[in-house]
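Q: Please design a sequence for this.
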């Protein structure tokens, strides 16, 4: 894999649970941090169409054939609108890596799902799908799930795209853009 590889980093905008939908931004970045484009879509808060919406956003983009990896900020966007990286990988043909700063606490996730969803079991099974890998960084470890790519390549991609902190630049850029677009300026930790 070349050092000039392109990635799409995906993150959602800040939202309130009283909102119906949330803006989702995809930033196309050539390693290590050259932004080449921005994609966007909306998904329902706590919905179930996120994977389909991301698939359509990516597959209809002029950047689709150039992207060699998709980075997602966690396994869910818009609350508990879960992204199935296995399906996203299969339908786009692009390897997918979900990145989290914190190790998932499945007992806490289960408690939250039970509190907010009558049919919580399906979401719980989906969120536990796939092995979680701890990857060391200069700061603290990150936790990833991957599809369509081996762990050695994941580590290389993370090294290529992570300049400071623990998040790859494509995710960090999407976070900043989404926050600025919805709140007037970027806020929060990216």
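A: Design:
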């Amino acid at each position: 894999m070349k050092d000039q590889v392109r990635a799409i980093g995906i993150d959602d905008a800040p939202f309130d649970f009283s909102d119906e939908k949330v803006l989702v931004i995809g930033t196309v970045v050539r390693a290590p941090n050259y932004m080449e484009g921005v994609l966007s879509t909306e998904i329902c808060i706590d919905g179930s169409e996120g994977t389909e919406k991301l698939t359509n956003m990516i597959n209809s983009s002029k950047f689709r054939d150039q992207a060699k990896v998709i980075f997602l900020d966690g396994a869910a966007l818009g609350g508990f609108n879960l992204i199935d990286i296995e399906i996203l990988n299969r339908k786009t043909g692009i390897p997918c890596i979900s990145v989290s700063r914190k190790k998932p606490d499945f007992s806490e996730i289960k408690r939250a799902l039970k509190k907010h969803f009558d049919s919580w079991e399906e979401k719980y099974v989906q969120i536990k799908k796939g092995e979680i890998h701890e990857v060391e960084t200069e700061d603290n470890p990150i936790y990833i799930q991957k599809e369509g790519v081996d762990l050695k390549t994941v580590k290389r991609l993370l090294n290529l795209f992570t300049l400071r902190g623990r998040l790859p630049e494509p995710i960090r850029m999407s976070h900043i853009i989404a926050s600025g677009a919805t709140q007037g300026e970027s806020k929060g930790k990216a």
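Q: Thanks. Anything notable?
A: The chain has one domain: 6-183. The first strand starts at residue 6 and ends at 12.
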